[in-house]
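ugh ok fine here u go
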Amino acid sequence: MTSQRTRTRMIDRLREEGIRDERVLAAIAAVPRHVFVEEALASRAYEDSALPLGYSQTISQPYIVARMIELLLDARKLGKTLEIGAGSGYQAAVLAQLTDEVYAIERIEPLLARAKLNLRAIQQFKVRLKHADGQLGLPEAAPFDTIILAAAATRVPHALLQQLALGGRMLLPLGTGEQFLLMVERRAEGYVETRLDSVRFVPLLSGLE
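structure:
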């Protein structure tokens, strides 16, 4: 079965699972996920499952990537976007289909190097990658209209709240045993939090490797 056919099946499955935003579906369809997984797992790239990347990290399942971006996009544009936990670069590549300014942080240097190679392989040069501690964000490029975390925090990182633009949205997995998506919106009157779907992510860790 060709990569194109398996990609089409993945998009059909995302529609069946409730993803409605055609912008998100087009962005997912445009990114060859098999480029971003281990070669031995390439045949499973278009399954709706998280896959191991090494270093105790995973590439998120396509549904979760689509769902989180759809929630962030709702009735707005992404604008300047910060991703915490670049991994192999897959989600950053999808985000780059939807906005011209994507910054992605990865704390594990070999993964960051792989993300650079993967993005270069698909000729995606919009993403700015940095080896840094995601809990500290990227103050030199702040503020951000959108912040998305690909690892579960035990509490909302204060530095990321400070780097969220007025009118901006941050979406993160929160919790240890039980995890859920938390939407944080920065409004004139302060931060507004909304608890959303139950999820399962690797933990957000501090420091560099």
